[in-house]
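Format notes (please read before filing issues)

Several people have asked whether sequences and structure tokens are stored in separate files. They are not. Every record keeps both together, in the order shown below: the sequence lines, then the token lines. Line labels are part of the format and must not be stripped during preprocessing.
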Amino acid sequence: MVTENRQENSELLKIRGLKTYFAASGGIARAVDDVSLTLRMGETLGVVGESGCGKSITALSIMRLIPQPPGRIVGGEIHLTGRGDLLSLPESDMRDIRGNEISMIFQEPMTSLNPVFQVGKQIAGPIMHHKKVSRKEAWERSVEMLAKVGIPSPEKRVKEYPHQMSGGMRQRVMIAMALSCNPKLMLADEPTTALDVTIQAQILALMNRLKEEFATSILLITHDLGVIAKMARNVCVMYAGSIVESTDVRSLFANPLHPYTRGLLGSIPRMSRAGGKKARLSTIKGIVPNLTHLPEGCRFSNRCMEVLDLCRKQQPPLATVSTGTGGDHLVRCWLAPAPSKELCDGGTSHSEK
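Then the structure lines:
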């Protein structure tokens, strides 16, 4: 299959000021609150953070798959090249986009795949719908895709049901399904969760290879900084519904600027420590704030070891800081070095609204 020519480094996805809220018994939960990011063609952009920070809701918002009620996208823009603002499109257009121009790998393939249909039929369905080909052509494409993702005997496996496959095999089926229509963008939500380390490495290597072959951009959602280091060029760190730091992966690991990012990196187990001495893993004290009752100031203020009085009173903007590396390094912290006067798009603080 010949892929279309996609110009690398041009913008593919641009999100500005995205807000997705949920009605909860205790009030309104601001699951995604004023999130802005840019993904370029040919790029893998990582979104990292602990459970409940808004990573998956961001991806579901892009697909416009937020359950209503209780959820609702209340503000912002999601621009996809050639389609404009996805939030302004009718649902019929979104059905054409899902699985065709944007595909998604969900967290748990066993619950994402339909247990009563052969995997071949589940791959062939979107192909017939989007590419308008015959059932035979779609089935042949399903076999081809299973072969591309490294499933042995694809002619046999295509007739099997999800429960007949291992977790790693099911994840490969999900990747085959996601790439079957040659999408511009693939949203990968924790693609290696619940897989053992060996299978994780195989899945990540497979995604990297197929990304190049199909010229597909990836928005990679994970809590694992090791996965980010292997896969992504740029990374956004999320906390309590907001992006707190955004830069290239090399800069993030070499010079993390937000206390939360430093806490995440400090909690990674290491085989060796300086001087060979035993050391306790560092931890981030406290718990993530309730999204229905967020702190007045910085959302990390109740857990931060460097908190100032200002942090408890005013939410810092997501600002571009000078690091000397030449690239953009955005951070939402009053202690960040040499902030520029101009805020990034969508980075207005709550106090300025």
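For reference, the curators noted about this record: Residues 197-214 form the longest helix (18 residues). The chain is about 30% helix and 25% strand.
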